[in-house]
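Reopening this ticket.

The earlier resolution said the output was attached, but the attachment link was broken on my side. Pasting everything inline this time so it's all in one place.
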Amino acid sequence: MSTDPAWRRYTLFALLLLLGLMYLAAVNHFRRHSRNFLDTEAQRRAEIAQWPLAPRSLPQHWVFSAGREETRLLGAGWWPAEADGTNLIHSPGHVLLPLFLLPGDLRLELSLDAYRLPPGTAISARVDGQELARWPAGTERRIADASLVVPAARVRRAPIDLELQIVGALQPLPYDPFTRPQHKRLLVLRELRISAAAAQQ
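Inline output:
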């Protein structure tokens, strides 16, 4: 026979019941408000593939700041857009461009600022896994001449997956949703200009 007073047993039972209810509420909230990242990424790619840009629509000038429609083209690696641009907090960062119905090459010009990158670091711009440009970083904040030409053979695939990969001595920064992005941001993407490469020759 237990020697504990009855109120202790009732209090313990009530606490256990409360913890169980809190656990069930947390599970329900997570299931209702979380999203499967892979499904979301696949859906975004499918949507972008249905948004073709014809040659007559070029040149394009996109701004990646809060409230702009262009921010929906951002894939993995980016913090939600803010007033001064979109922060890359995990390398690589993906920008998913719509299908371009172009007979020739495509030129991309980016406005990029780099943060926390040691000397000797570089930014590799890749499409379909192939490096098309590499820009040195770690000395000046603004990345000079951040432009590349996407060959016509790759322009016809939807969407164009532009991948910005930081290469060099940088150690990967772990993702922490409670850390302010300016404490760990690697790059800031502000603008992207898109044009037919032949028009600038």
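Reporter confirms the inline version is readable. Residues 70 and 194 are 13 Å apart (CA to CA). The chain has a mean pLDDT of 78.
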